[in-house]
Amino acid sequence: MKQQLIIALLLAALPAFAQQKDLVAYANTLQGTNSEYALSNGNTYPTTSLPFGMHAWSPQTGKNGDGWKYQYKATTIRGFQQAHQCSPWVGDYAVFTLMPVAGELKTHEDERAAAFSHDRETARPDYYKVTFDNHTTTELTTTERGAHLRFSFPARVPAHVVLDGYNALSGVRIYPSERKITGYVTNGRFIPKNFRNYFVIVFDQPFESFGTWENVHNRQLKGNDTLEAVGAGAYITFRPGSKVSAKVASSYISAEQAETTLQQELGRYRSFTDTRSASQKIWNTLFRNVLVEGGTQEELATFYSCLFRANLFSHQFFEYDQNGKPYYFSPYDGKVHNGYMYTDNGFWDTFRAQFPLNTILHPTMTGRYMQALLDAQQQCGWLPAWSFPGETGGMLGNHAISLLTDAWVKGIRTFDPKQALDAYFHEAMNKGPWGGANGRAGWKEYYQLGYVAFPESHGSTSQTLEYAYDDFCGYQLAKLTGQTFYAQLFARTMLNYKNQYDSTTGFMRGRKLNGDWLENFDPYEWGGPYTEGNAWHWQWSVFHDVRGLINLMGGEQPFLNKLDSLFTAPPTVNVGYYKQMIHEMTEMVNAKMGQYAHGNQPVQHAIYLYNYTSQPWKAQALARKVMANQYNAGENGFPGDEDQGQMSSWYVMSALGFYSVCPGTDEYVIGSPVFGKATIKLENGNTFLVEARNNNAQNVYIQSATLNGKPYTHHWIRHSDIMAGGTLVLEMGDKPATGRGLADADQPFSLSRP
């Protein structure tokens, strides 16, 4: 009897033990770092950061200004830098670098670079460590607006730390008696003229000597304590064999605010270990709020590595004053404002999954973000499309309205919907001065003809499809908030996708101003009327009216035939307007899934379109195939650009068992979860469970389902069902349940669904 009691107590303690496990250890920040210009396995860098932190930190293998700041194949590290980069294609901003140098003082980035190997490297969300071949060790952990570094030098060898001011005007000042360096950097492409990032660095060891230098001519000024120049930096020398800690904080507002932030965020931690423990606790809390069980160790590593990346962007761009109130320097008008601001995100990528995931995990932050969007519009004159940190106008579409509408329909109502619609109306009826997504390229033709014409606007077919979806979001928000004028206006254009469909070829196709189709059509040809893809990829971008697309294509069977062919057609590439193979083309070929190019955004939702037909089981099988074959936690972890959390959020949501095909509605489309059990702890105190019974690599098909104990045949689930808490139970099997969920009501939302 006593032995049975002990066993029962041990079994009861197991769930509590699982909760205490260091889930952060599963997340590998080297995921996706084996990338280059010609081939992306993620185009990531080993980010050390808190969730949505204002600053992140990363080791630097590339030269100053190189978009590929860290490449897995590199053999030397040049420094450890403050980072914000959301894509190698746009570079970075507000960067400065610290680097330990053992032996002879070497300041230039090429000369100070130290050799390393990955077997002496640790890369986690809360902690980065590397021991160089010269036996110098760097450790790194972060707060939201600062970092704590520790440099350990070999015995009896001169010990230096070099500060590099990067590639624009910078300034430094050294305070030897305070063991402190202050300064600023101004680097960045999309910044106001008065932009400065002020930093303060405090060391815990006295300086033996010091000096300034600049990286244009590598000129050193020993004993000098102040310098302003392009690439101005500093160096300090400690006693040989030192172990030196440095606390760093930065501010976009002022040098005084940087000092305040240093005390707010790092003043409470006496040691490096204390700072790291705090970071580890924050990440573990987040990871335990999305607790998955029942998978392999590899699946757990992939899931939590992706969950980490899904919670990095957008970066906070606000700071807290001495009274704890938020305020910020605006990257749009260069002035200081009260409140919250976020930046570093391209909505063309992230409206699809990263922001919908935030509505589940971070509704409070999402609410602040929505108001920040409208504040940014007031300061900039335009809704952001891709901020970095100011507006770049990158890519296409006006997807801020998707974010706003998605938040509203999911009960996050922290903003004035009339103000949002006014801002969107301005966006939709004008073309701004920056990029393809600042206002609307081809907006006049879109309203006059019902489509964007080619060659007047490159990417025209893609633009029409995305504008129609955005107009649906405008319609949806207007309808829900009683804005009749806008509801009627956008109702006229949200079906414009139909004007791009050519029934002769069966594809969405480019059109001329006179209404003619472009000649010499080839569905395998990239570019021209298609953005970063071809006709196969853009056929499916009708998120809001999949049933209408089915009807347009001649009914369910022709639709299914074409959708099947997406995954079985040869991976042929006609480089077309690009004139050469670009990395997205290579990644599609490497994926070996026909013309399905999961490595880029336009077609990532296509798998889930089977849920709008009588064959939803195909979505279940294909989602599991993509997750198993195209993602892992290693350096080759992604099938293309990770793109500010979108690629990772696709995996996280899909692994949980659902996906956001149409943000702006309150439905998620059900797929096939990876894990036997997923427990989502929500901000409101509720818990939502997804149980996939008999789940394994072969049993990918849903046989039956219950929601809170009641039979459930729908291939979708409402956001409100998740937020209310409860349990979705899926019985899994190795063969499709072909007769399940065939009623119209079982299919997800479509405008044209009866």
Automatic annotation (TrEMBL):
Keyword field contains Transmembrane helix:
no
Q: Which UniProt keywords apply?
A: Calcium, Glycosidase, Hydrolase, Signal
Q: Glycosyl hydrolase family domain spans which residues?
A: 257-734
Every copy of the Glycosyl hydrolase family 92 N-terminal domain together lies at 26-251
Q: Name one GO molecular function term.
A: hydrolase activity, acting on glycosyl bonds
Keyword match Signal? yes
Using the record, list the residue span of the signal peptide; answer none if the entry has no such feature: 1-18
- Which EC number(s) does UniProt give? 3.2.1.-
Look up the record and name the cofactor or cofactors this protein needs: Ca(2+)
Quaternary organization: Monomer.
Question: What is the protein named?
Answer: GH92 family glycosyl hydrolase
What is the protein's species of origin?
Answer: Chitinophaga horti
